[in-house]
Amino acid sequence: MHEIWLRPNYRAIAFAIVPPLVLAALGAWMAFGLGSSGGGWWRWLGTAAIVLSAAMIAVVLMQLRRPRVAYAEGRVLFYLRSGPAIAVPVKVVEAFFLGQGPSYLPGQSTGNDNTVNLVARLSQRELQWAHQEVKPALGHWCDGYVTIRGTWCEPLDEQVIRRLNRRLKDVSTQDA
């Protein structure tokens, strides 16, 4: 079991459930309302829309359980891509601090909107952790700095940074 250090943005993820819910309602109307008086293909189309919506909602709900940063067994876990977390040894993570960068919101064309980001500085001596492939909407990992976009995590402020650095210090001294 892992210890969650930074949670996802619940409001943004919950908002992502709205389109599949609308699709499910439309599917229910086609399958049980319109489908009962219309042809059989409306019922099948409505049922397919309901099943597709349920799958999309399940994927979104799984994201609610997936933290952005966690800790387990001497490793800091960064959840910045599909699949398993990137597990970095705690001795490699030096500090967390606030940064600023593009929000990468869907449908945004200008790229001028900025958001507060979390930045984790990694040891420059550990070259194998200098670069990792991550989902650009969630963050950026380059030259030993891990940037987590504030759009997709819990609200960031000085208190969150202090909490993260305090916890990092605690687990670092336990592992030493």
Written account of the structure:
The protein has 176 residues and is α+β, with helices and mostly antiparallel strands. It folds into two domains: 10-65; 68-175, no CATH class. The protein contains four helices and eight strands; from the N terminus they run βαααβββββββα. It has helices at 10-15, 18-37, 40-65, 158-175; strands at 3-6, 69-72, 75-78, 86-89, 93-102, 114-122, 139-142, 145-148. It has a four-stranded antiparallel sheet with strand order 1-2-3-4, with helices on one face. Helix 2 (18-37) packs antiparallel against helix 3. The radius of gyration is 21 Å and the shape is elongated. The mean pLDDT is 88.
Write out key terms for the chains shown.
2 domains; elongated; four-stranded antiparallel β-sheet; 176 residues; alpha+beta; 8 strands
What order do the helices and strands come in, and which of them pair?
Blueprint lengths: L2 E4 L3 H6 L2 H20 L2 H26 L3 E4 L2 E4 L7 E4 L3 E10 L11 E9 L16 E4 L2 E4 L9 H18 L1
Antiparallel strand pairs: 1-2, 2-3, 3-4, 5-6, 6-8, 7-8
Helix pairs in contact: 2-3
H/E order of the elements? Answer: EHHHEEEEEEEH
Number of helices: 4
- How would you write the strand order of the largest sheet? 1-2-3-4
> What proportion of the residues is helical, as a percent range?
25-40%
